[in-house]
Specification:
- The strands form two sheets. Strands 2, 4, 5, 6, 9, 10 and 11 form a seven-stranded mixed sheet that branches. Strands 1-3-8-7 form a four-stranded antiparallel sheet, with no helix packed on it.
- A hairpin with a 6-residue loop joins strand 4 and strand 5.
- It is mainly beta.
- The chain is built from no helices and eleven strands.
- The termini are far apart.
């Protein structure tokens, strides 16, 4: 059973930074892409960023460009999300997402990020 485990969330002041990690375990297939989504209270889950696992190309939601950076360590089956200049509107549960080489999608359990003074 594939497992995605996020970590790195927490409470941070506006303007601060956090680095989220997502480790994939029990994987027996190839990864096509991994990404991050978030869901704020009372809102729909929204796309944050995605990375192509083999080539490393990335794509971001417009509101995250320049502040967030997605990266991966293929050897560790880990994807990261570096978040800088955080704003209160970034408060949400952040979910890790994996798309396998045959098109199946997997989700982590989420990690809470709270931006508040």
């Amino acid at each position: 059973q594939v497992q995605l485990v996020e970590s790195g969330g927490g409470l941070v002041q506006p303007g601060g930074s956090l680095r989220l990690s997502c480790v994939v375990s029990e994987i027996i297939f190839s990864i096509s892409k991994m990404g991050w989504y978030r869901q704020a209270p009372g809102k729909e889950r929204e796309f944050v960023a995605i990375i192509n696992w083999s080539g490393g190309s990335t794509y971001y939601a417009d509101s995250m460009k320049g502040r967030f950076t997605i990266s991966r360590d293929s050897a560790k089956n880990t994807v990261y999300l570096q978040m800088n200049n955080l704003k209160p509107d970034d408060t949400a549960v952040y979910y890790c997402n994996l798309i396998s080489s045959y098109g199946r999608t997997y989700w982590g359990q989420g990690t809470q990020v709270t931006v508040s003074s």
